[in-house]
Design brief:
Helix content is 66%, strand content 0%. It is an all-alpha fold. Helix 10 packs antiparallel against helix 11.
Length: 255
């Protein structure tokens, strides 16, 4: 299977903007790459939109551009030409486009310097961003609908681990990333995520959608044991290569 120029362009975006997910996609069969690269390129473009400008209004406009594109996809209208939207429109169902729209809306938190309102707000942010993305990836790789809850739980755990890795950068940018940044608060958040960590029993072909969560258990365990790793920026890295290789070889997600 030869990847189209649009897919290759999406791959370049992911390679530059999300090296972890790029590695997971390159470990996947070529057919899965054609699905995952546009989805992850979309995520790169949306996640960086609030950070390319200091003007909240401009950041909001950038996010709205993607929401408008997803609305076009959901309604079956001609989608605006873009190296990401064109292949994405060929993949998404209306329901998937609406789900991704919720993930874009959640990114408004990244625009401003306000803290999360409460734990429910934080959980919703993680689920709409990490959970919505992973479940859409799994669904596009033909996951059974009955696995959605387990996939979202895995995505929540991985999403929290990823968010904790970003805490030093968020704090340096003037954000208030954690509801409770004390050692006990960080430990509790890691434990909350660890409690939802699961290995969904999906078919082998769906596995690549879950590989961004590889190594999550070790990361959360380390934070529970030594919370200062978060503030020091010393958390274990995402998706250890050897665990990714084992996942690809065995078909199991080495969480």
């Amino acid at each position: 299977m030869i990847l189209s120029p649009d897919i290759i362009a999406c791959a370049r975006i992911v390679e530059q903007g999300d090296k972890t997910r790029f590695r997971t996609v390159m470990a996947a069969p070529v057919a899965a790459r054609a699905v995952l690269f546009p989805l992850y390129a979309f995520n790169v473009e949306v996640s960086r939109a609030p950070w390319v400008t200091q003007e909240p209004m401009i950041a909001e406009m950038r996010l709205q551009w993607w929401r408008d594109a997803l609305e076009e996809i959901a309604e079956g209208r001609a989608v605006r030409a873009h190296e990401v939207t064109t292949p994405l429109a060929a993949l998404l169902s209306p329901a998937q486009a609406q789900r991704l729209d919720a993930s874009v809306a959640a990114r408004r938190w990244d625009v401003y310097r306000d803290s999360f309102d409460d734990q429910s707000h934080f959980d919703k942010y993680i689920d709409q961003t990490a959970g919505g993305l992973m479940w859409t990836a799994a669904e596009l790789l033909r996951a059974d609908a009955g696995h959605e809850g387990a996939v979202r739980d895995l995505a929540y755990a991985a999403g929290v681990a990823s968010f904790l890795r970003a805490v030093p950068e968020l704090a340096a940018a003037g954000r208030i990333p954690l509801l409770d940044g004390t050692p006990d608060g960080v430990r509790a958040l890691a434990g909350r995520a660890r409690a939802r960590l699961t290995r969904p029993k999906v078919r082998k072909g769906t596995g690549p959608a879950l590989w961004p969560a590889v190594g999550t258990r070790a990361a959360l365990d380390a934070v529970e044991k030594t919370p200062r790793l978060v503030g020091d920026g010393q958390m274990p890295g995402a998706v250890p290569p050897w665990r990714l290789s084992l996942s690809a070889l065995t078909g199991r997600v080495m969480i």
